[in-house]
Amino acid sequence: MSPENLSRRAILAGAASVPALALPAVVAAAPTAPDATRESAIVVRAEQIVDLLRTRRICEGWKLDKVRADQFLQNVRRLDLKAGDTDLEGEIIAWAHDHGQSLDWLLAGDPISLVCEGAAHSNCAPNPDAKVVRARAQMAEADKAIDELLKKPQHRGTDCGDIPGFTKADRRRDKALVDLAKSPARSFEGLIANAEALTDRRLFDDYPSHQKIAATPKSNAARIMPFIMGSLVRFPAHQA
User: CA within 20 to 30 Å of 19's CA: 44, 96, 103, 156, which one?
Assistant: First the structure.
């Protein structure tokens, strides 16, 4: 939504949490105190947000841009809910978006997005990359089974298709490769599993499959793949 299309009604009545969080339709907006949407209450919450981001440890390397934070607070203090300050609104929303803050909380005192977003990233939430991790494990198990079959003295010189159990293990591996190629990694754990698969020595001989898996991660998290790959190449999962 562009700043030109913003309105007080749209912000206060339908502002989505930032980052965006899909909530079930049955979840109604939390009741807020009568004064929660007053300019003075919004200023208090904005000041609290900036103070926490400035004084608390957020993550490794975090540093709040003081100039932008001060400008954000100035914009909030100048906000007039009865006027058409779309430029101010746009700057306020941009700052909140860049810093992962909830517009529901900032502008309406509504904690729904804070509660639900926290739960979505908790240990109780299902792993979004369970299929990727499982496929990587199945691929490793199939590789191990194949290696054990090929190492048996009685199978030396025998066509792979004639070795009992080989075809079944090979099909399990093929299925795992398909699952890896079709399942974009959306978490660090998924990216690790994806990267481990790409460093598998067998996959180096299967260029088409290697490229399909390499192109799988489509989320923003995929930007860190080169760094993960760099560490795994130094310590590959499977030694030749």
Answer: 44
